[in-house]
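One thing: could you explain this record?
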Amino acid sequence: MTRKFKENVSLAAYSNYNIGGPARYFFEAKSEDDVRWAIGEAKKMKAPVFILAGGTNVLISDEGWSGLILRPCIMGLKAKGTTIEAGAGVLMGDLLKFAQKNSLTGLEWAGGLPGTVGGAIRGNAGCFGGEIKDAVKTVKVLDVKTMKTKTCAAKECAFKYRESIFKKKNGAEIILSTTFSLAKGDKKEIARATDEKIAHRAKNHPLEHPNLGSTFKNVPLWDIHKKGSIRYKKALVKSRIEYRGSTFSIKKDPFPVISAAKLISESGLRGVSYGGAMISPKHPNFIVNVLGAGSPHIKGLINLAKSSVFRKFGVRLEEEVGILDPIREL
């Protein structure tokens, strides 16, 4: 089989934002051998590599990428008992349908979650109080340095809030597949719970515009009141806090947090726009591409939200989305 990199490929077509300049080299890996070959070729060329999954959580620069964009499009879904093995390129939506078909419960919280299994593992995707780490049994990866594969147990993945060892290693280990440990459940109840989450997203999220989902992580309650303090405990009992003239509900995500969307809204930024990008009035933690925005416009609104929230509340927002700038080392 002859393998070859594509050249000067527009990355906007691979981004949920419809934003992104050209990649000097581009390759979609359909197998583990494809991934190994692509990394080997990039090493020979001394080309920097960026691993792009579903493009649902990364802002790609208008300047593009001067090295190789590698998309692990490894497919395949296998069920054995209460476990499912999924390739890194499998869409989360397809994984959920497969789990439902096999009457396996444990992933319903991810109803409507975009992107691929590999991307979800890397960022420990979560919503509605659930996180993907709770269902992970093992993750198979390619070690870029040794060019060998290895299987990591869940505890070795160092999962934290929207974090994993793979995110910290920044491409040094490429996710190939994941085995999920689930439980037997009722097919109709699994479908009902999954559809409920999908309907919630449709109603409350600005899915009518290109977006990357939540721009910022929600803020831990202990960033406002010291963990274990009287104020912290009272806030937990009341499930809300009064802070600098605003009232915030406390939700579990999966620990006590206050909403980044609420912080942005209370900072007066709901509906603020810049060059075709807008802080969504429907859900202020979404920055949407309303009218042909470029990466500088999205970055401008990200910086505005961070500075405004810090000025009003003394809280530092942390990005949940990744940003692909043009220069990066392998």
